[in-house]
UniProtKB/TrEMBL annotation:
This is NACHT domain-containing protein. It comes from the Bacteria. Pfam families: NACHT. Residues 36-184 form the NACHT domain. Transmembrane segments: none annotated.
Amino acid sequence: MSVFVDRDREMQLIDDSFRTLLDKHRLLRNPILEFYGVSGIGKTLLLEQIKERCHDTMLPYIWVSLAGKESTFLQKEVVNQVNNYLRKSGLQLEQSAVGAIKVLLKQGPVVMLLDAVDETGNDQVEEIEALLRDLIDDEKLFVVLASKKMIEFENERSVARKLQWHNLRALDRSSCEEYLDKWEQDINEPEKQIDSDLRSIIFRWTQGYPLAMNIMVEAINDGNDPRTEAGKQRIVARLKERIIDQEILKGAEGDWKERCFTLLRLLSVPRRSNTMLMEELITHFAPEYHRKSSLAYFSLPTELHETTHVFSWNLERFGFAVETPVRHLFLLLYQQVRPQEYFAVHNFLADLNHQLAQEATGQDRVRYAREYLYHLASNPSIEHHEQKVMEALASILKEQPEFLQPFFEEFAQDQELKEELGQYLPQIEQAIQERAAQIKGDV
């Protein structure tokens, strides 16, 4: 199913760009937009919506999907599509992509939509970079790119300066409800309606990842009930096959494919990693992939990301992290298939972050303590669980006010930690509010 919801921010950006493009007295500040994100997050569907905007505003557009195409495809396809416009206007046909687009631009604004720009290798990216270099000075050209990873166009500064990136994220809960409502309207089959209980399970398992939602709904309609053990196993197996094996790991082969799967599953448990943490986790839980030296771990993030496009440096988390939609899927697989090992990893990370918090100072100590709290909350099988969770919070709240203010702000936005805290959340939020009030009263 293809249901378009929760892209208001992105479409507002497109609408603003279109208005500027059609205004002869204004210039686009960012004539190149790139939407990037993991497979199945909705990039192509977003481009389809932009294409509809082109129809509505009568803007000529060039649409090229490069998935599975040879390096010569781009030039030929651009020339063919532009020449279709030129024929309608009775103009002379062109033989090169740059020449064809320049002729079309003389008639007015043009939109170029390029999908899957990073799926055919660096040569294709460099060809797009060169094409944009020769065209982007024309103020009537607007380009939208879609890719799995952020493309920076490092070889052409003139192109890079005019590029703006936007990371497509998973859907929130209300958007998931809207998504399922529209899906039910489209199929119009009462026997396939999804009740509230199943909707909650779908969101909990997929965390709003559209591709995972599609697959899970299909599996449920095929008679697999996630509330039964057999149904749960079949759905989890289908999610692994369709997303992990066929999408995320499709660029890996043989032993490297199994290694990528094992390492990404393991590195999904921490919310952020550095090479020290990677080495610790792999040594303890995947010793068959242990590297000969600590220095050898520095290349691991690049190796994983070049193959899968889902493991990179995350500015928000101050470390390397698996992309959020895929990370939640790996966590689901880990917990369902290897529950003892899954909780053992959480326990290991809780102890490690607790130790690091005791050794660190200032803001770093608070950050480690927050991750200690997260991993404690994620493992309810720990003895005296509630006591340890509340003690962890108490140690954080003893910090100096200048270190606590960032914690208060980050906690307010940390939905994942709040979900893991579960029944303890009201008590913890009350303690945080009381400490914040005390600090405010002391000032």
